[in-house]
Amino acid sequence: MSPSAAETYWNEAAIQGEARGIEKGEARGIEKGKAIGEANAIIRMLRRRVGEPPARLRNRIMSIQSIDKLDELLDFAFTCVSLGEFATALN
Question: pLDDT band for position 21 (50/70/90)?
Answer without folding.
Answer: confident
